[in-house]
């Protein structure tokens, strides 16, 4: 009887070990499935990086879900997604919530410089906007600035830049960045506010169509004018330049961290550049001919 129990125990242990090894073998950076949450403003660059990763690793399947930045962060904490794409600077309370819930030290993986842009319809006479106009306008009951939604990354970032809480700003809403572009001409004297990545893809026909409908306003700060172009982003001189980064709740090197590493390597950074954004980690190579 004792021998039978002993044999059963050994078989049980071997079965558990075998299952563990089998499970571990299924988890890898080059195979498996995961979900990424991204704000609508960063959706294009996120999907481009995901497509590149799945082409490089055909046994991976990555789903991109669109959610407001704050809600995507909560989904990350609650293990509903493996990666959240972020732009805002987290508060001490949010950092503590992440480190307590995820049980990891927070390490933002920065991969691109994007921007929040202010625009008017193409036929508008307005040609620039000052920081003072932005600050005063977002305190005015006229609500002349039109955002793509509450809790959006664009609203969060502008509020942080002005050292305000989003609830303290006065603004109008047209849900969805594309809708803001397409409908702004119905509202004279209004100024649209969207993320650059919505219109940044240089060779995309839809992005080109949207760009043709609007005039992006350079931002004047301390008497100098800055545009959200490559120079303005690479040197961080455009006042509303923002850095996009990934947060993950994965503590080992599996598909999430594999994707993050890919996005920050030269290949991933080339995809970022093709999206019309400023790569964060890319470097120029100098070749000396002799």
UniProtKB/TrEMBL annotation:
Gene3D superfamilies: Periplasmic binding protein-like II. It holds the Pfam family PBP_like_2. Residues 30-263 form the PBP domain. Keywords: Signal. The keyword Signal applies. Coiled coil: none annotated. PROSITE patterns: PROKAR_LIPOPROTEIN. The keyword Acetylation does not apply. This is Substrate-binding domain-containing protein. It comes from Chryseobacterium luquanense.
């Amino acid at each position: 009887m004792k021998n039978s129990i002993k044999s059963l125990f050994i078989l049980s242990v071997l079965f558990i070990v075998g299952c563990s090894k089998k499970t571990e073998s299924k988890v890898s950076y080059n195979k498996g499935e995961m979900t990424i949450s991204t704000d609508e403003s960063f959706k294009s660059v996120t999907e481009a990086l995901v497509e590149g990763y799945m082409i490089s690793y055909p046994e991976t399947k990555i789903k991109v879900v669109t959610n407001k930045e704050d809600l995507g962060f909560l989904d990350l904490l609650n293990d509903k997604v493996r990666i959240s794409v972020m732009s805002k600077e987290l508060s001490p309370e949010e950092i503590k919530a992440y480190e307590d819930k995820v049980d990891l030290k927070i390490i933002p993986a920065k991969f691109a410089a994007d921007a929040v842009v202010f625009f008017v319809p193409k036929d508008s006479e307005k040609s620039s906007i000052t920081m003072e106009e932005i600050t005063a306008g977002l305190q005015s009951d006229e609500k002349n600035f039109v955002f793509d939604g509450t809790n959006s990354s664009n609203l969060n970032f502008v509020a942080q830049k002005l050292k305000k809480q989003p609830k303290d700003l006065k603004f109008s809403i047209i849900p969805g960045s594309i809708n803001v572009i397409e409908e702004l001409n119905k509202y004279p004297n209004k100024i649209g506010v969207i993320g650059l990545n919505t219109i940044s893809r240089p060779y995309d026909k839809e992005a080109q169509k949207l760009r043709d409908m609007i005039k992006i306003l350079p931002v004047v700060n301390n008497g100098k004018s800055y545009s959200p172009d490559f120079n303005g982003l690479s040197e961080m001189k455009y006042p509303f330049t923002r850095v996009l980064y990934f947060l993950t709740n994965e503590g080992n090197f599996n598909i999430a961290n594999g994707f993050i590493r890919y996005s920050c390597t030269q290949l991933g950074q080339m995809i970022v550049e093709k999206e019309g954004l400023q790569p964060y980690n890319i470097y120029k190579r100098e070749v000396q001919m002799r």
